[in-house]
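About this split. The held-out portion is used to measure sequence recovery: a designer receives only the structure tokens and must propose an amino acid at every position. Recovery is the fraction of positions where the proposal matches the reference. Here is one held-out target exactly as it appears in the evaluation file.
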């Protein structure tokens, strides 16, 4: 069973994923995999480098052959058609790699596995999941935790939150919601409850009669 997990910035995805892992359920992070598919030697990076080889300035590669994310971000930010092209190159590869990672974790005997993705719904990765778990915190707390963790002020944190999928929309698409507005201790208790539930669901699914 694959649990897709998402939430806005600083909602606690990484913290919650670690709490699940401590109970024996491992995770794959879609952001890590998105970085993997554009590492040197990957076909997606070669395609991207070729498309923008004739851009003004240094192009989209750093001197060491790695992707210059900032340069690429500027190009796709300015041109939605380029963004779509980039997604057509990267999304299928990210998806294929996620499937591989998830299958490997499932084969290693995990009771269920988590697919952690900030863009679970926006990217369509939720289709890979059997259930979707949304980590939810009130916006004021989300802004406070973003400002405390990242080097941004409150106004910047507020702007990042405003640019993401609205909280109500995310919640409307959830099968399960974990309220992470309390202490870490409370979060761990809620994770333990969900863990019990997911193990029950997994054993029901594996029954043959
Ligand atoms: P995300 O992965 O969703 O961006 P993180 O797991 O990095 O979020 O959490 C954001 C910040 O909030 C981190 O500094 C983390 O330590 C803190 N945090 C997460 N959950 C709690 C909690 N229940 N109580 C207090 N701080 C928390």
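Reference sequence for scoring:
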């Amino acid at each position: 069973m694959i649990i897709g997990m998402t939430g806005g910035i600083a909602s606690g995805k990484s913290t919650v994923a670690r709490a699940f892992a401590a109970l024996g359920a491992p995770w794959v992070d879609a952001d890590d995999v998105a970085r993997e598919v554009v590492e040197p030697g990957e076909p997606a990076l070669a395609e991207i480098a070729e498309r923008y080889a004739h851009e003004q300035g240094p192009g989209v590669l750093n001197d060491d052959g790695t992707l210059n994310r900032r340069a690429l971000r500027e190009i796709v930010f300015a041109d939605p058609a380029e963004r779509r092209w980039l997604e057509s190159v990267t999304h299928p590869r990210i998806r294929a790699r996620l499937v591989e990672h998830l299958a490997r974790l499932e084969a290693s005997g995990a009771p269920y596995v988590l697919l952690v993705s900030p863009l679970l719904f926006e990217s369509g990765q939720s289709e890979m999941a059997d259930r979707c778990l949304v980590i939810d915190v009130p916006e004021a707390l989300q802004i406070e935790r973003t400002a405390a963790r990242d080097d941004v002020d409150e106004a910047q944190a507020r702007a990042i939150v405003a640019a993401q999928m609205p909280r109500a929309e995310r919640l409307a698409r959830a099968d399960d919601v974990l309220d992470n507005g309390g202490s870490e201790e409370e979060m761990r208790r809620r994770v333990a409850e969900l863990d019990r539930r997911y193990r029950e669901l997994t054993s029901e699914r594996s029954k043959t009669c």
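Annotator remark: The pocket of adenosine-5'-diphosphate is lined by residues 7, 9-15, 145, 149, 180, 183-184, 187 (CB under 6 Å).
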